[in-house]
Design goal:
The protein is globular and about 60 Å long. By secondary structure, it is an alpha/beta fold. The strands form six sheets. Strands 2-1-3-4-5 form a five-stranded parallel β-sheet, sandwiched between helices. A hairpin with a 4-residue loop joins strand 19 and strand 20.
Length: 447
């Protein structure tokens, strides 16, 4: 007699916010997939919809609330998780029909809520891994050739504009051997580029007292430098994000010069004026940072530095802003993003005096973006005629789109290739650069 298989419940997912949230979404879906759940690409086919929210800024919260509302309107059975889970009352007041609300990276609670809303169809023919394992990330929400690798959760900083510690807690580092096992698994499944993420990558390991762990017959100390070195032995490309400019970051630069780690640092400087940095409760060592940037470039001339800056912070004067512009001229950063200061419920900065008018924020935002675009255009123009390694993201009939070592996916520029229809996503190829604009490069694969 033929076995009649139970119909597996289907789960939809809406993932908002930063790559760290995306990793959380991948982990949740992996556990559910191992229990026999199927993933639904749309609202109509889902038995329950998960909305992984962002709560960093009020605008992000509003986007999350809109996503929850859309999921309720289209499906009706919604579970909310992520950073806005800390504001359950706000969500319930607007959407009382939400089935359950859990906080950031609360994997077990999310899975339990899914079990209650859509019980799993237990069957040895459906369960891929009995019981599942949060550490084993199999299901990816990114393309096959690159993956985000989260090495820690939480943050020990108390920046006056940020509420991340209240949402995600203090720093909790993962064991290095667990991270390296995950990296090996990702690379074996086709990952060519690992994007290392956390709230503070430079602080990795300080909470576990840098206790060494055995790996491949040697000990690995849980520090950013040791971890980066080991990851460089596993993946073709390793990219470091969310790096604070602590002195020990200097030890990573030689790994970039050796080719073990991509010559790329994502550093959230946030501002340059000592007065503004003090009000932000961030280290006011902008002059030393300039010296260290020069030192990094002397060791690894190809290093690309990206950063983000906040304009219109309470009390920011015209002199503070001019200081920032002059600092940017001196630093010559490769990639820059800017944000207008936005009050966030619960942030200490909200109580600071002398708020900057919205019109002035807009003006300063436009000025900083114009200045940094000019710097970027000059830097990219200097690459014309040279050859860069490019990882391919998408391939069309004749052309392709990729990224250089100086470009992270979705936040930096792209390299547009002609005569590249023969390539495949994940290929890493030398490209002759033929043209450039303010943000992107144009070229042709070298045969």
């Amino acid at each position: 007699m033929a076995t009649v298989l139970p119909s597996p419940p289907r789960v939809g997912m809406v993932s908002l916010g930063c790559p760290k949230n995306l990793v959380d979404s991948e982990r949740i879906l992996t556990v559910l997939r191992s229990e026999g759940y199927r993933m639904s690409p749309d609202y109509a086919g889902a038995d329950v919809v998960l909305v992984n929210t962002c709560g960093f800024l009020d605008s992000a919260k509003e986007e999350s609330l809109e996503a929850i509302g859309e999921a309720i309107a289209e499906n009706g059975r919604v579970i909310v998780t992520g950073c806005m889970g800390a504001e359950a009352q706000l969500i319930r007041a607007r959407f009382p029909q939400v089935l359950a609300i859990t906080g950031a990276h609360q994997y077990e609670q999310v899975v339990e809520a899914v079990h209650a809303a859509a019980p799993p169809a237990r069957s040895p023919y459906l369960d891929l891994v009995p019981g599942g394992a949060v550490e084993d990330v199999d299901l990816k929400l990114t393309p096959r050739h690159y993956s985000y690798l989260k090495i820690s959760e939480g943050c020990n900083h108390r920046c006056s504009f940020c509420i991340i510690p209240s949402l995600r807690g203090d720093l909790v580092s993962r064991r290095p051997d667990a991270i390296l096992r995950e990296a090996e698994k990702l690379v074996a499944a086709g990952t060519r580029e690992l994007l290392v993420i956390s709230q503070d990558t430079s602080a990795y390991g300080i909470d576990i007292r840098r206790e060494p762990r055995a790996w491949k017959g040697r000990e690995v100390v849980p520090t950013m430098t040791d971890l980066a070195r080991e990851l460089g032995r596993i993946a073709p490309w390793v990219r470091l994000h969310y790096v604070y400019p602590y002195p020990h970051v200097d030890s990573v630069i030689p790994l970039m010069a050796e080719g073990l780690v991509l010559p790329y640092l994502d550093i959230p400087f946030q501002h340059a004026s000592p007065a503004v940095l003090k009000r932000m409760k961030r280290p006011a060592n902008e002059a030393k940072v300039l010296d260290r940037i020069r030192g990094w470039r002397s060791v690894c001339p190809d290093i690309a530095i990206r950063s983000t800056f906040v304009v219109g912070f309470p009390g920011e004067t015209e002199a503070d802003f001019e200081y920032l512009l002059d600092w940017l001229d001196e630093a010559q950063l490769d990639r820059v993003g800017a944000f207008r200061f936005e009050p966030v419920a619960g942030a200490a900065a909200n109580a600071l005096p002398d708020p900057v008018p919205e019109a002035l924020k807009e003006e300063r935002y436009a000025r900083v973006m114009e200045r940094t675009a000019a710097i970027s255009a000059a830097k990219l123009a200097a690459k014309i005629g040279g050859t860069l390694l490019v990882i391919i993201d998408e391939v069309g009939e004749d052309g392709a789109t990729g990224r250089s070592q100086a470009d992270a996916p979705e936040i930096d520029g792209a390299v547009f290739l002609r005569d590249a229809g023969h390539l495949a996503p994940g290929d890493i190829v030398p490209v002759l650069i033929e043209d450039a604009d303010e943000h992107d490069l144009y070229g042709v694969p070298r045969r």
